[in-house]
Design a protein that fits this description.
This protein is an alpha/beta fold. A hairpin with a 2-residue loop joins strand 8 and strand 9. Helix 3 runs parallel beside helix 4 and helix 4 runs parallel beside helix 5.
Length: 254
């Protein structure tokens, strides 16, 4: 009997990460759910028949333990751990917030990729796949988003560089850049637990994306034929034309 393909999803305790773990499991992958919140990923892993590994991607020791738990072979790595903190102007930015965003979104992705590249090179399927979850903020700037856009731009360029450097090896490198996704925690974290401000982000928006929409895109990339590399998918709701232009109210023909 053939062993199932193995996928690692970081930031799997909620939102896009949890939805991706469920979707990849439905596609037949054994999913290693990695995140800091042990109870959440243990519940998720039990639900989908996966494996839970407590891991802070900014902690190289924890990432080494993740790599040990994964073992010598890995088919898919989804670098999803990330997030935004604050919406201050650049001149009012807190260096600690900027450093935290860079550490999670960029250095965390670097740590996990470095630790698991050997296992990806030994993918039983013959082709390893890396999917980095960026954002439309990695491609366009917007006011109040300086620290987050800087971190996601760095992640986008790192992804492009990695693809160049791994050229000639059977490893695919993809980026998924979501726009407005209504998850339970992204905006709540950005606004430091202020639920009212978090809710205002989505108020009046006709059908913002759901985490499952992004998970579908990730699973589609991971299940393409081995010779197909999807460089970039940008996914936005119909109501969002750009970071600064989001329609409020029902979408209606004119």
């Amino acid at each position: 009997m053939t062993s199932p393909r193995v996928a690692v999803v970081t930031g799997a305790s909620s939102g896009i990460g949890a939805a991706t773990a469920r979707t990849l499991a439905a596609e037949g992958f054994h999913v290693v759910c990695a995140a800091r919140r042990t109870e959440r990923i243990e519940t998720l892993a039990a639900e989908i028949g996966g494996t839970a590994v407590t891991c802070d991607v900014t902690d190289t020791g924890a990432v080494a333990e993740l790599a040990e738990a994964v073992g010598p072979h890995l088919d898919v790595l989804v670098n999803n751990a990330g997030g935004a903190v604050g919406l201050e102007a650049v001149v009012d930015g807190d260096p600690a917030d900027w450093r935290r965003m860079y550490d999670i979104n960029v250095i965390g992705t670097l740590n996990v990729t470095r630790a698991l590249i050997g296992a990806l090179r030994s993918a039983p399927s013959g082709t390893g796949t890396i999917v980095n979850i960026s954002s439309t903020a990695g491609h366009r700037a917007y006011e109040g988003g300086g620290g987050y856009t800087a971190a996601k731009h760095a992640l986008t360029v790192m992804t492009e560089t990695l693809r160049l450097e791994l050229n000639g090896e059977p490893i695919r490198v993809s980026e998924v850049a979501p726009g407005m996704v209504h998850t339970e925690e992204f905006s709540l974290t950005r606004f430091r637990g202020d639920q009212d401000r978090a809710d205002q982000v989505y108020a009046g928006v006709d059908q913002p994306l759901l985490a499952s929409d992004i998970a579908d895109a990730i699973a589609w990339i991971a299940t393409r034929p081995a010779h197909v590399n999807v460089d970039l998918i940008v996914v936005k709701p119909v109501a969002q034309a750009a970071a600064h232009k989001v329609a409020k109210g029902p979408l209606t023909p004119r």
